[in-house]
Amino acid sequence: MDTYVYFHGVVDGDWGISTAAGLMKGVIGFALILAANKLAHRFGEQGVYR
After folding, report:
1. Which of 26, 23, 47, 24 has its CA nearest to residue 35?
2. Which end of the chain is more exposed for a tag (fewer CB within 10 A), N or C?
3. Residue 47 lies inside a defined structural domain of this protein
4. What is the model's pTM?
5. How many structural domains is the chain composed of?
């Protein structure tokens, strides 16, 4: 995904699609962090935050 964003944004100059792809990558990463934190709490661990 990072290479896609790099090649389309920096190399090809298509900033719109690379921005959208980078934003979606950030949203998916944030959702995975929230899910991992919830799973850690279910197992009785501290997790990333309370």
Report:
1. 47
2. C
3. no
4. 0.75
5. 1
